[in-house]
C-alpha cells in the first residue's frame, strides 16, 4: 500500500507494533495514549480522502485504551509552549515537541467528542504562537504537510494555519528590497498568498494598568491617572465611569467576524470569555469588560485569580463579506 505522506505509513506501522505489544501484555498508560493519538490522526487523514488503512480491530483496541491512557494537562502544555516561545533555541527541538503535543491532545479530544476542550486548547496555543511568529517561521513545510492530512473541521487546523502563514511571511520579509516584478500570474498569486496575514488580531494585555487593578486587595476609591487607560498596538482599555471597556482598532477593509474574545490562562486553568460588541465603526469595535468588582468575582469563580495571562483576540473578515 502507498500513501501520499510518508508519516502515514510510519503511523500505521507503529500502530501494528503497539497492537502486537498489547497482545503480549497490556499497554502502559503512555503507550495507550500514543495508540489513541495515532488512531485519531489516521482517522483525520482518512476524512480528507487520503488512502488510509485503519481496521475495525484497531479502532476497538483504541476504545479499550481510552480509560487507561495517560493524557497531558492542557495548562502544562500551554505553560511549556509560552516558555519555549520566549526562548531562542532551535524550533525543531523542544518547541516543535510541545507543538506536536498540543496537536496530539486536541486531536484526541476531537476524536472523543470533547470539541470544546480541543477548541479552548488550540485557541490559547494559537494566541501564544501569534505573539511570536518569528519563532515558528522555520516550521512552514511541516505545517503544510500536517494541514494536508487534516479535515476542515479539525480544531488543530487553526494552529497549523498560523504557523504556515508565519513561514510565508518570513519568506516575504527575507526578499531583497528591490524585487523584480513578477513575470507570471502564478508568481503574483504566490506573493499575494505569502503576504496575506491571518485575519485575526491578538494582543497580550496582561500588563495593562487598568487590568492590574484586579490584583489589588480592594478597589481604591480613587484611581491613579496612570491606571485609567491602556493604549496598545491594536487594543485600548479604558474606564467609562466604573466600567472597563475594550476598544479594538480595525485595519482598513476589515470588520469583526464575531465577538471580542479574552483568553485567560494560568498554570492551573485556561478560559475564554466572549465579549459581545456594543458598538462598531469602520475604524474600531468596542466591547464591555465590566467593573473591577464584577471581573474579580468572575476570576475567583473560575479559579483564575493567580495572575492570569490575558490575550485579546478578534477574528475579522473582509468588509464586502
- Intertermini distance: 44 Å
Question: What letter string, H or E per element, gives the SSE order?
Answer: HHHHHHHHHEHEEEEEEEEHE
Count of separate structural domains? 3
Strand content: 15-25%
Average pLDDT metric: 83
> Count of DSSP helices?
11
CATH topology group of the largest domain: Elongation Factor Tu (Ef-tu), domain 3
Secondary-structure class: alpha+beta
Largest sheet: 5 strands, antiparallel
**Helical residue percent band:** 40-55%
Describe the structure.
The chain is an alpha+beta fold and 321 residues long. The protein has three domains: 6-68, no CATH class; 74-173, no CATH class; 200-318, Elongation Factor Tu (Ef-tu), domain 3, CATH 2.40.30. The chain has eleven helices and ten strands. Strands 1, 5, 6, 7 and 10 form a five-stranded antiparallel sheet that branches. Strands 2-3-4-9-8 form a five-stranded antiparallel sheet. A hairpin with a 2-residue loop joins β3 and β4. The longest helix has 21 residues, at 91-111. The radius of gyration is 22 Å and the shape is elongated. The two termini are 44 Å apart. The model is unreliable at 181-197 (pLDDT under 50).
Short description:
The chain is an alpha+beta fold and 321 residues long. The protein is 46% helix and 18% strand.
Tell me the layout of helices and strands.
Blueprint: H1 6-24, H2 29-47, H3 56-65, H4 74-85, H5 91-111, H6 115-130, H7 140-147, H8 157-173, H9 185-195, E1 200-204, H10 209-212, E2 229-231, E3 235-240, E4 243-249, E5 254-256, E6 260-265, E7 270-275, E8 277-280, E9 284-291, H11 292-301, E10 309-318
Antiparallel strand pairs: 1-10, 2-3, 3-4, 4-9, 5-10, 6-7, 6-10, 8-9
Helix pairs in contact: 1-2, 2-3, 2-5, 4-5, 4-6, 5-6, 6-8, 7-8, 8-9
